[in-house]
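Justification of computing resources. Each target in the renewal requires a structure prediction run like the one illustrated here; the chain below, 761 residues long, is used simply to show the kind of job we budget for.
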Amino acid sequence: MLVALGLGGVRVKNSIDTLQDANDAVRVAELVQAANAYASDAINERDVSVIPLLQGKRDAPAVVAARKVTDADAKAFDTAVARAPKTAGLTRRIELVRAGEKQLTAVRANAFTAKVSGVQTEESYHAVQHPLMEISNELGFGSNNQASFGRTLYAISLTQAAESLVRAIGTHLLVEDRDALAEGELQTQLGSFSSYVYLEQVGLQEYAGAGTAGDMTRLRTALADAQKKGAQQTAKAAEEAEAAGQTFVKPPALTKMITEIAAGTPTDQLAAEGITPESFFAASALAFDAYRGIEVRLTDTALANARSIAADARMAAIVNGSLALGAVLVAVLLAAWVARSMSRGMRRLSASAMEIAEQRLPAVITQLSLAVPGQVDTRVTPIPITTTDEIGEVARAFDHVHREAVRLAAEQALLRGNINTIFTNLSRRNQSLIERQLALITDLEEREADPEQLANLFKLDHLATRVRRNGENLLVLGGERPTQQWDHPLPLVDVIRAAASEVEQYERIELAGIPEAEIHGRAVTDLVHLLAELLENATSFSSPRSTVRVTATRLPDTRIMVEIHDKGIGLVPEDFALINHKLANPPTADADVYQYMGLFVVGRLADRHGIRVQLRPAAGESGTTSLVMLPGTVTWRSDTESDDDTLALAAFKARATPGLGALLAAGPADPFGAHEAWDDGNPAPGFAAPSGFAAPSGGPAAAGAPAAGGHAASRGPAAPDVPAQAGPPAPSASSASSASSASSGRSRRASKRGRRPAKDG
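Resulting structure tokens:
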């Protein structure tokens, strides 16, 4: 009964709302009709009054008749306003019309007098006509595109108004004594005349852009009919002149007349070409009437559509109301019959189902995720309904669903535990061997004096270090935390150098502007791992002859922004959006994670310490910039440390880095604000590996790129494995040995085991 009542009520309400909207649209269409008639007759009053008023005949019959028509239209408009809906937009437009009407009396009194000279009289009617014309924008209910319909009507009204001004000013120029005009006044009139000719063309273009194919056909037909009617009028005038024995000069086309008048041709020369006030007014009036006919047709069409929709909505409301009432009556009878036989069993079934869904099943899943899966009791208590009817069958089916859900949850928990155990065991079994191998390589490096052999040992050291990082990636995948951590803060510059020392092409990494900040010991190992993954990708996917620049900035709210800039081929916006989404929301370990291990590991490590990582395109050149936002929870400063140098450095970088100045000025605002739109991208299924993160060794990679944690073969000639610049990355403050010199004096690079903590850690 409630469903029938709700659905029926919705249908009836929708029908009533549609009926009300349609009735309002009918009244709006009637208002637009009255407004367009009012506007057209107001500017027509101006046009027919030009010649009499310039001749001083202010009480001429043509003037009096035109003003009576305008006044009658004003009363009809007032009647339509009283019936129109009181919407905010319509009320505002009507108030503008009222403001213009207050000026109409003064406009009539001062028309073509010394108080209002030149084209000011023609343009003064704009205060009345334009607000009336704008009401057309409220029209369009029931059309396929309401905004387009109103725009079409507004465009044709604008064209009509422009044609009226052309007619009025052109007649003015043909009638007025130009010798009596003040200096420069003729040029002002000619300039206004040309402007309104151009405005008419703009209106026609706007009409073509907003109207349909049918609207354009009607416009061409109306103009063709006007041209035929003009030819007939010209032929009739020629016959009358011939009958009277007068010489008749055939006037040119309207466009030719406009061109000659705009050029400032003297009136006697224009008359010799057949361009007289009468011929020009008649030709322009035909175009004016054509535009007026299209305007009337559009308003009539809108009114007819609104009335048709109102009639349909009225019938739909009656039918829907009857159907809703009948459905409610039937529902009452069915509900009364069903309630007697099913209410008790359904209540018991509903209560049991809610208990399972909200309490028992979530509790079992929670236990499976926290405890050892095999030690959790996964037995299911059946729903206490023993009947064999349909309700009993549903209860048994729900018990079966419950058992299957618990069984699947247990299997998934066991599978996740096994996978994590595999990752952990594989990694830990290899870690000790790799550490021994690295120690042996270091010992060989310290004893080797031959440069070529030393370079080979460096490469071998790099490979072993990267294998170790792959093993640590497996620990991250398995959810394990580092077994050893630092027991004291470590300078940020040492953390970055330790990360750089784990990259094969470490000599391409440059550090600049690193503030004097320290990282909490608990985050040092993971942060070095995170930065190493980002630096590995930056060097792997950029030219071996380019540098990777690492900068850092301390923000006023104690956070630190680390930026890694490379000059690689970059990524497309879709790849940036997908990568940033995965970095912000690390996915569950599945087959895709193994293909994009670097991306997953960076996201997991960042999530572990509240670090934000995001990629963005490099400013002004190809490449990618990795942004790493270190929160105040992982940074450490002594109470005596001053912020003066840090803020001065930040201000200097703000002048060189677009957008950073706004970031520093904003204080604790989100520094990723300029790039948050990427986070909103919905990753499409079937993720294609972007160039910024490649697949690990053994899995598919994008465009043949190496893995983020695997062998990073460069895309060009291999760079030498000895430092090519002063100040190669130094290891962190650990048990790893610092750079030393061979007996021959050649520089030795820093140890590649920057993340192995000291024995006292």
